[in-house]
Amino acid sequence: MIKFSVKHPVTILMFIGVLLVLGVVSLSRMGLDLLPQLTYPAVTVVTRYENVAPEDIEQLITKPIESVVSTVSGVKKVTSQSIEGVSVVIVEFEWGTNLDFAAQEVRDKIGLIERYLPADVQKPIVFKFDASMMPVARYIVTSDRYSLTQLKKLLEDDIKPFLERVEGVATVDVMGGREIEYWVEVDIPKLLEGGVSFNQISQMLQLNNFNFPSGKVDVRHKTLLIRTVGEYSSIRDLENQVVGFRKNGLPVFLKDVAKIYVTESERLGFAKSFKDEAVMVSVYKRSGANTVQVVRRVDKAVARISQWYKDVKLQKGFDQARFITKSASETINTGIIGAILAAIMIFLFLIDLRPTLVISLAIPLSVIISFTVLYFLGYSLNMMTLAGIALGVGMLVDAAVVVVENIFRHEEQGEERYIAAINGAEEVWTAISASTLTNIVVFLPLIYIGGMIGQFTKPMAITVAVTLLASLLVAVTIIPVMTSSYITQAVALKEMRKRYWFTPLRDFYHRLLTQFVLPKRGIVLILTIVLFIVSIPILKFIDREFMPSMDMGTAIISVELPPATSLQETEHYVDQLIDIAEEYPEVERVMAIGGLSSGMIFGTSQGSNTATLMIRLVDAAKRKKSSMQVANEILQKAPIYEGATVKSMDLVNTLFFGGAGKPVEVSLYGNDLEELLSLANRVADEIGKIKGISGIELSFKKAKPELRINILRDKAAYFGLTPIQIQRELQIAFQGVTTTKLRLRGKDYDLVLKADTTYLKENVEKLYYFPIITPMGAVIPLKEIAEFSYDFGAVQIDRENQSRVIKVLADIRGRKKSEVFSEIRDRLFKLSLPEGYSLQIKGELEQVQDMIKNLGISIFAAILLVYMILAAQLESLKDPIIIMLTIPLAFVGIIWALFITGTTISVPSMVGALILVGVVVNQAIVMLTFYKELREKGVGPLEAVIEGSVTRLRPVLITNLTTIFGLIPMALSGHTEGGALRQPLAVSMIGGLVTSTIMTFLVVPVIYTYFEKIKTK
């Protein structure tokens, strides 16, 4: 290929041109997204059973569903939450499971038990988890003309359907505001006088509000459709509806027992922009749709809406596209700056612009060519693929540097440039192909890593591998062509003469090698081993975490006040937090949603005691504090509220990487809730004694006051009543039910039937005398057939693998997580548990252990693969061992770099270590292959080591320093958007390259002389 390239330069230029055109076209078609498509292997089953207590939800719905879905093939874990009115069962599968088939199998299994569920329970909804369940944009809608009720109706009727027609939009949720409803409010004394039950009224309203087709009839050669029209057309129709009959046979009209009026729906939640109440619109994209493109289309649609409705303001409060574009821009900038620094470093060594430009061409050519492969692999431009490109910037010139440097050497020896180009490139072909393969082969183990780590790292690994292969193609085709055609021998000689600054460095290394390193090789080897041994204990001072916290520019604060807290009290507390947030110059906008919300991702209800604040910050370049720092400072100033849980959330870590809500999570398993709660309190007390632990909370909260009405079955049966009949009467009266839809003037309104309950506000015991009408028409007070008691019921019951679980959660502040986890293990190991109860430490500790295990195995596998590649290339089992011994030298640098910079051991930093396994051996490969070439030419063993080491000093320094300088911008980008994920990777690679570069020049000659039994004195 090399000889063909040099002989046919135009053909090669055209071939490369075609690849570049394909690359540019592919780039224009690649989407821009935050992260690779992350599909968590889980299926969620949501079942609603309105106004049923968590204990009953657990027994009637959750447990039956758990038992059948656990039999689905590939199930790894089943967790559930039983909340008032809702059962949520999450079925987690093994990674690699086909979720479409799994979801269908779950539906089939649930179908087998549906008939055994309560009759009035809603049909279970089964859906797959997808990161697209997080809204891609949120808009705050306000108006000086419309009330919140009118604004919500406008949004629901006109604006929401328009936005849902935008390409890529899955659904739009409208939160906040209130809706128009028609209420039928029953006067209980009048109801008692009429002898009519709530259930009778409900049934009469439902049965008298329908239009039905009634067949057809043929008349005079025409077919007429018969349609029975029975819908209510006015309020008067409702008022005159007969709902029952008195004992004297006279009808009871609805207007006799109830008032009918139009009102706003009950205020169950709120949405706010700062402290002003507003309506919030959340936009969700379709699975697989490009986030940036969807948000741009929605923005255009919003601009059109603003033109149509001049009195309506839609202001963007949050959008993922903003962070994605900023992150992509920052990543591209770090890559460009890295490329410039790498080019400068090449120029400093070559002291000539033309060869510098030829070598630097490898960077854009390799990157553009790689876009074609990435496009056909289905990858988007996201943080990981862009990081892979930025990471490879310094490495892309390695092969080109070695080729150009060797061509120069042949020219300096007097060869014609045409011959020098062929001989120089062919001579190093084996070395550069071996080094490229070792760079690539380290990524193979990542393909077999399951879980979120594999999905997260695989796109970056493939991106680096593809760009490196492209750089190898460029190095053996276009580089020899350019060198032979555009860099003359005179230029090479000029370059050689100008290289004045490098000569003293080369001479110093020659003296160091001949006067100290080789004569005292035993001391050098011992010092190297001591350095490695001394570095190992430093690991315990380096903190560990699964994934660094990523600053998306939005601080999230979750508020949960005691369960009985009213919506007004929750709103008042949220307003205080908003006041605190407004004091920060970093804050651009504050949004809040609270109470019950139709916009919950998983369909579960919030309570009147809960709220979420979304604090949008200015761009990262304009502030010094991260989103988590701002959130935590607001929490420190938050007003104290007894029984409240107010915490910040790492939204990206939780949604995308499966991060725990808090780093410390201790799970206790058993059947009895009281015993579990007692054990959980013991665990909380125990870990509360540990320095660095803060914000302890339990997942189980038993604090919601209940008035329990226990039906006396025998007495109820005596009057011909069943518990479900009694429950239905109470439900209609005190909760209210939407009996039917009222169509007036072409619009549908909910018709809500409920009792006038104002008489209970002063004395709830009046409920004891609530009238129950028997099937025989007799009226009896509720207390005749029921007993009353007061208690505190569970707010939520959690289960895992068909066992009840209570979790103890905590934050870690002011101390290394690894130290805290170690102390937690020591303390809880001594804790005695009753028979049938167990304990597990989970949370971030479990994730970190899994990460270290998986990536540790990958690093070990990568070392073996590199050895195999080298053995095959060098046709030797011994020589690769010399090369592999340079890897520990890189690990020394990684350890010290992480320690000095305060960078944690995490997925990105360990991926950096994995990549280094393939990179650091390149230096030793180049040196070792040149030793052998010199010896084959008849040079003495010791002279070959000295000459080979000194001769390869420059190309090795160029390749390593270009990689290091190419990574420096990435290492300094921690404060930028998305920089938290890039920085640890760059820091670990720079540290490893620095020590391996220095030590390899000293250690490889020493080890080689020992292996070859060369005398150095």
TrEMBL record:
Single GO MF annotation: xenobiotic transmembrane transporter activity
Residues that span the membrane, as ranges: 12-32, 332-351, 357-377, 384-408, 428-449, 461-487, 522-542, 855-874, 880-899, 911-931, 985-1011
GO cellular component: plasma membrane
Keywords, comma-separated and alphabetical: Membrane, Transmembrane, Transmembrane helix
Stored Pfam families: ACR_tran
SUPFAM superfamilies, A to Z: Multidrug efflux transporter AcrB pore domain, PN1, PN2, PC1 and PC2 subdomains (SSF82693), Multidrug efflux transporter AcrB TolC docking domain, DN and DC subdomains (SSF82714), Multidrug efflux transporter AcrB transmembrane domain (SSF82866)
Xref: PANTHER family: PTHR32063, SWARMING MOTILITY PROTEIN SWRC
Name under which the protein is recorded: Efflux RND transporter permease subunit
Origin species: candidate division WOR-3 bacterium
